[in-house]
Amino acid sequence: MGSSMKSLQRVGTVFLSSVLGLLVQSPAAFPQTSPVAAEPAPQHRGTARDGQHDFDFSIGTWKTHISRLKNPLTGSTTWVEYDGISVVREILNGHANLFELTADGPAGHIEGVGLRLYNPQSHQ
């Protein structure tokens, strides 16, 4: 495999690890160092549910622990552990948030970024 293909594969692995790291975080398990946005007011029955604030709980700076397979897609069962910091911030006037991750472990240093977008027309 050429070096550019390996780099692309590494970026994909880091991105996937970042997204999975965010998904497995439990907000109650990690102390938050910046304030969370206030919860939206309850909506009335019969109105379309607006999911724009569904991920506001993750906004802030978090201690993060990530586990990933050392050799994914090979049948490997060897996991490597990383500890680091993730920062989630609101962007585009609340229509999106940006997730940044930096972590270190025995297999090295990883950095990742994720973008979560919201479409107000489809409420997705």
* Total number of distinct structural domains: 1
Shape: elongated
* Proportion in helices: 10-25%
SSE arrangement, N to C: HEEEE
Q: Could you describe the largest sheet, including whether it forms a barrel?
A: 4 strands, antiparallel
Structural class: alpha+beta
Low confidence ranges: 14-38
Look at the structure and give the mean pLDDT.
74
What is the strand content? 25-35%
Overall number of strands: 4
Count, helices? 1
Strand ordering within the main sheet: 1-2-3-4
Measured on Cα atoms, how large is the radius of gyration?
17 Å
Instruction: Give the end-to-end Cα distance, rounded to a whole number of Å.
Output: 38 Å
Give me a quick take on this structure.
With 124 residues, the protein is an alpha+beta fold. It is built from 1 helix and 4 strands; from the N terminus they run αββββ.
Description:
The structure is a single chain. This protein has 124 residues and is α+β, with helices and mostly antiparallel strands. It has one domain (3-33, 50-117). Helix content is 18%, strand content 35%. The protein contains one helix and four strands. The protein has one helix at 3-24, and strands spanning 60-69, 79-91, 96-105, 108-117. The chain has a four-stranded antiparallel sheet, covered by helices on one side. Strand 3 (96-105) and strand 4 (108-117) form a beta hairpin. The protein is elongated, with a radius of gyration of 17 Å. The termini are far apart. Residues 14-38 have low confidence and may be disordered.
